[in-house]
Amino acid sequence: MGFVLLIFTILSLSFSQPNIVIEDLWVREVPPVSTMSAAFLKIKNTGDEEDYLIKVESEIAEIAEIHISSVKEGIIRMRRVKEVIIPPGQTVTFKPMGMHVMLINLKKTLREGEKVKLKFVFRKSGSIIAEGTVRKGRSVR
Amino acid sequence: MRILKLVIISLLLTTILSCEKKEKFNGTLYDKPAPEFCLKSWKEGKEEKLCLSDFKDKVVLIFFGYTHCPDVCPAALQVLAKTLELTPERDRKKIQVLFITVDPERDTPEISQRYAEYFHKSFIGLSGSSEDIKRIAKDYMVYYSKTESDSKGGYLVDHTALIYLIHKGKLKLIYPSVRQKPDLIAEDLKKLL
Ligand SMILES: [Cu+2]
């Protein structure tokens, strides 16, 4: 019995794990007078276990938080989210009017076309650094 | 003869129907007097009083937002900038976009102006006292509310993000908070200009 458990543990350790891939990262260009921006991206989990995005860090802003915007009866609300589950085999999309990484107190002006690096911290997969581009954003939501 | 009559009637009908079509807008038709307001603008380095009635001869597009808003507000102002781009140059002079902050505590007239003009050089940003903003927001059915959240970025503001179109002293059309399309607004402007 102990042997079977041991095998099971080894198997689960070697096979059952999340595999996080970050794609299409972009940061919205905002007027220089604004100190806030938002980053959008896709988080893909090609592994077979869920993972959780628990923290984001960036050199371009003093604070980075995970936020979600929602609209109900025409009123737009934005709230902070502690963590985001990334289920196995699924892609979680951060997009305008949905989830975004809120970049608070920008340290510099962001210009369209610039490259920006963000560090994403996952509970199981650890830190992943991704590079994205500053964009004006889609004019159609 | 009967056929001719039929042709005439059907022709008349299509004319009437197409006339009616001209009154169809993409925005929601509201068509009530636009409440007057005066706020503070920022012009050539100083604050200046500016009223809605200063733009009697123009079609005015108003968006209420705040500059600490990283998602919805830039998107809406981009939509309005794109709308201008889609409008023939000779008509652009007849359109005025106003950005009114619902966060006057942080957005001074100068900040509002610098924020607005970034999207298009013709845009005007406005601010005022908390009381003025509150009253105007009420007149225009704008909802906004400061929320104390655990965000380290200070308070957030829940708000409606409608776009208002004012024509000949009337609040003519309203565009919803989401899925604002520049081509649809430009189409409406074309009918009004
Ligand atoms: Cu946010």
Structural description of this entry:
The complex is a heterodimer of chains A (141) and B (193). With 141 residues, chain A is mainly beta. Chain A has one domain (15-135): PCu(A)C copper chaperone (Immunoglobulin-like, Sandwich), CATH 2.60.40. Helix content of chain A is 10%, strand content 55%. In chain A, a hairpin with a 7-residue loop joins strand 1 (20-28) and strand 2. The longest helix of chain A is centred in the first third of the chain and has 14 residues, at 2-15. Chain A is elongated. The mean pLDDT of chain A is 90. With 193 residues, chain B is an alpha+beta fold. In chain B, the strands form 3 sheets. A 6-stranded mixed sheet of chain B has the order 1-10-9-4-5-6. A two-stranded antiparallel sheet of chain B has the order 2-3. The longest helix of chain B has 21 residues, at 2-22. Chain B is globular, with a radius of gyration of 20 Å. Chain B is 37% helix and 28% strand. In chain B, helix 2 (72-86) crosses helix 6 (182-192). Chain B has helices at 2-22, 72-86, 89-92, 109-119, 130-139, 182-192; strands at residues 28-33, 38-43, 46-51, 59-65, 95-101, 124-126, 144-147, 156-160, 163-167, 170-175. The model of chain B is unreliable at 14-21 (pLDDT under 50). Chain B has a single domain (25-192), classed as Glutaredoxin (3-Layer(aba) Sandwich). Chain B has 6 helices and 10 strands. The N and C termini of chain B lie far apart (42 Å). In chain B, strand 5, helix 4 (109-119) and strand 6 form a beta-alpha-beta unit. The interface between A and B is large, with 35 and 37 residues. Strand 5 (75-80) of chain A pairs antiparallel with strand 8 of chain B.
